[in-house]
Structure formats: C-alpha cells, structure tokens
Design brief:
The protein has about 270 residues and is an alpha/beta fold. Helix 7 links the parallel strand 6 and strand 7. Helix 1 packs across helix 8 and helix 5 runs parallel beside helix 7. The radius of gyration is 21 Å and the shape is globular.
Length: about 270
C-alpha cells in the first residue's frame, strides 16, 4: 500500500470540505511539498454519472505542476470512496507525491470505512447543522483523528466545539492513546489552517512513535489483499454482474425453478 502520508477529509454535506482541502493544498505547497488530491463525488443512482466538480472548486491549484487532482465517482461503493481510490494513491506515491489528501463523498454514515484507508482522518463539522450530535450516531467519533469545526465564524461554533469536547470526555482514552484535538477553522478566509496542519503533523509524529502507522498500514494491506482475492474468485465463478452462469441461474430463480440457496451452491461448485 501507499507509503506516503494520506489524510482523509470526512464530513457531512455543506461543511466546506472542498474549501478546506483547497486551503490545505495551498499550505503544503508553500512548504514545497508535492500533493496529490483524490476527490470522490457521489454517483447518480439513476444515470451512474457524477458531477466531478472538484477541479472547479480547486481551480487555483489545477494548473500547479506540484499538485495532481484526480476526481472520481463513487459508483455506489460504500465507505465514502471509489473502489479504485487506493490504487490511485499508490500511483501518486510512485509519481513522487509527498502527501495525498482524500476528500470523501460527504454522506456521513457511509464514510466510516475511510478510517482503514488513511493515516490521518479529519472529521469536519459546521455550526448550526447538528453535526456533532449526528456524528455520535454515525460512529464518526471513533474514526476521527482530528475534529475540524469549519465555518467557525458563524453563530453556534463554540457550541459545536463544546459538544465535541463533551463526547470526547465521555469516550475515555487509555494512557498513551491519541486523543483527537478539535481545531476551529474558517476555510473560506484561510483562518485556522496553520493550526490544522500543525495538528496533522503532530498526529503523523505520534503514528510513527507509537507504531500505530505500521499497524494501520498492515490492516490496510490485509483489506486490499482480501478485496482483490474476492474479486478474482467472483470473476472465476462467473459471479460478476453480466457473467453468463450467474445470469442463467438468476433467470431460473426468478422463474421459481430453483431456490437462491441451490443456485448459490451450483455457482460455487461450478
């Protein structure tokens, strides 16, 4: 899997994730770092297409040779990612990028799997949207390495910070464990971005010192190997959508000639 630092930006819609990523890219470029951006947009349930508008939202970096932005459609994949996102991160690693930023689709509860993909996960909330309460329901509290209260110039920002602090206090952390900091930003104005990059750097240092980075990357490699193996098995079985054997068994089940369990046994036995 990718050896370079990967930072995932997770959050609910309309919390300013793209603007935040844009500011982070600018900050890293000022430090002379080459950056890759993987921006995943949701696919339409009807047409299968996606807007892929991140190059527009990040247009000030689109022509920068030190930045490569790859917009991708989720194509129904869960976890807030595209199935090919990890492979794209590997390509960016091979191309010499120093860091990769991954912006997920922004659907909240489907993004929990990103924690197994990135070294550092930023969970972005905004005041006045009930995000901090919804975050607890979605399980996002467990995947956050850093909480970002964006649009902190708006009313309710302090309440959002307070709610997050309350949830963190209730969670309880073992000695030596990483406790997610809360960083307030106003990405549209560039406020708080320096504090955020500092927090990311502190988390990267903790990952290296604690051995957590190696553990996470080993887990990531296991998931990748398993996913590839399952895809290969499905292809060998003809169990992918459009496979002739699967289509024939599907027609038999739909006609009531075969039950689904018998059909599955026949598919596996060949």
């Amino acid at each position: 899997m990718s050896r370079l630092p990967t930072v995932a930006v997770v959050g609910f819609p309309n919390v300013g994730k793209s603007t935040l990523v844009n500011r982070l890219v600018g900050r890293y470029r000022e430090a002379g770092r080459a950056i890759g951006v993987i921006a995943v947009d949701p696919s339409s349930a009807f047409s299968g297409g996606a807007l892929l508008g991140d190059r527009i939202r990040m247009q000030e970096h689109a022509l920068d040779p030190g930045v490569f932005i790859r917009s991708m459609a989720s194509r129904g994949a869960l976890g807030g990612l595209s199935e090919a996102a990890l492979q794209v991160a590997l390509v960016m690693d091979a191309a010499g990028k120093d860091d990769v930023l991954i912006e997920t689709v922004g659907v909240g509860q489907a993004e929990v799997e990103i924690a197994a993909t990135a070294d550092t996960t930023l969970v972005v909330v905004a005041p006045g949207m009930g995000d901090s309460i919804q975050a607890a329901k979605a399980g996002i509290l467990e995947i956050a390495d850093i909480f970002v209260v964006n649009k902190s110039d708006r009313p309710g920002a302090q309440e959002a910070v307070r709610d997050l602090r309350t949830m963190l206090a209730m969670a309880g952390y073992e000695a030596g464990a990483w406790k997610p900091p809360i960083v307030s930003t106003t990405a549209s104005a560039g406020d708080g971005i320096a504090d955020l990059t500092a927090a990311i750097g502190q988390h990267e240092a903790w990952l290296a010192q604690s051995g957590e980075r190696e553990r996470r990357r080993a887990a990531r490699a296991r998931e990748e190997i398993s996913a590839i193996a399952v895809a290969q098995l499905r292809a060998q079985l003809g169990a992918l959508p459009g496979g002739a054997r699967l289509e024939e068994l599907s027609r038999q089940v739909a006609a009531g000639d075969v039950d689904p369990y018998t059909a599955a046994d026949e598919l596996v036995s060949g």
